[in-house]
Amino acid sequence: MAHLADLVPVEMQLVAPHSWRTIEGVYVNNPFLGLGLVLLLLTTFSEAAPLRIVATTSLIADVAAAVGGNDVEVTELIPRTVDPHAYEPTPRDMARLQNADVIFANGLGLESFLDRFLAVSGATHENKLVIVSAGRTPRTDEQHGKEITSHHDHGETDPHVWFDPTWVQLWVENITSALAERDPEHASTYRSNAASYHNQLSTLDGWIRKQFDAIQPQQRIIVTEHNELGYLADRYGVTVIGTLLPNFTALTESSARSLALLQKQMQDSGARVVVVSYSANSTMAERLARDTGARVVRIYTHSLAPIGSDASNYLSFMSATTTTLTDALREEAP
Ligand SMILES: [Zn+2]
Predict the structure, then answer these.
(1) Which is it for the CA torsion 307, 310, 316, 322, positive or negative?
(2) Which domains does the chain show, CATH number per domain?
């Protein structure tokens, strides 16, 4: 097996710590940790180490990568298709958060674990946490109250802002400021990346509007899982007539009554499309659809699709969501 010293350039060996033996010992016992040390040394001694960004969700990570370009290193914390509401970070996640230069989070109550992380790890980490949705008034529980079966467990606010591209333009602004402040050397690149991505989001917004406008407003009626499409509904004139889940925990006795009420609302309103997440258990949605003659459609809700598939970046995620919804609304129209 090669020695660590053989892997390190000569000039680095000259400035490396004295305790080679210890490092060699670690390397021999654990080749992966050893390679990690080499990478760490290379990073430490390189002049322009990229900013290490940890984004809580894949949606935020994708936008951060669009702004940061080649000058940043972005990782996603919560695995794709895992529900962020109930997410419990692993010890490895905690270490990633600690080692990050910047943490980008949605905020608005989505990542409840961040409070615990900050409580444990203290003030130094508070400074690197950037809430990308900060600076605009979110939807509230009062607006959720319009849907009789929905009692969201998100607290005061609706966190699902990414279903409105103009909110993602706010993410872009917040991400750009945070990167420019921490890495002024690349600030002009970040700003120019941001301007170009901002334009793509405007184009996306116009395209989505056109797709929904092509459907009669009285036909744009859907049922969702836990009211995750409120921002999309508000922006593009879609009515969410009801939701399947009263909260994020297991169903309670009252949910049977809620479901009966929802069924009646669907029949009265002519709603024929039930939207659920790919990661959700769809038993209840299928039953409701069977009883009302509606169709169940699946979309990615809280994350991008797995890497390599359609909808694996924000722009394609939104166009896939729009196409799925508008196709179903059009085909199921009475
Ligand atoms: Zn949600």
Answers:
(1) negative
(2) 4-45 (no CATH), 51-203 (3.40.50.1980), 215-331 (3.40.50.1980)
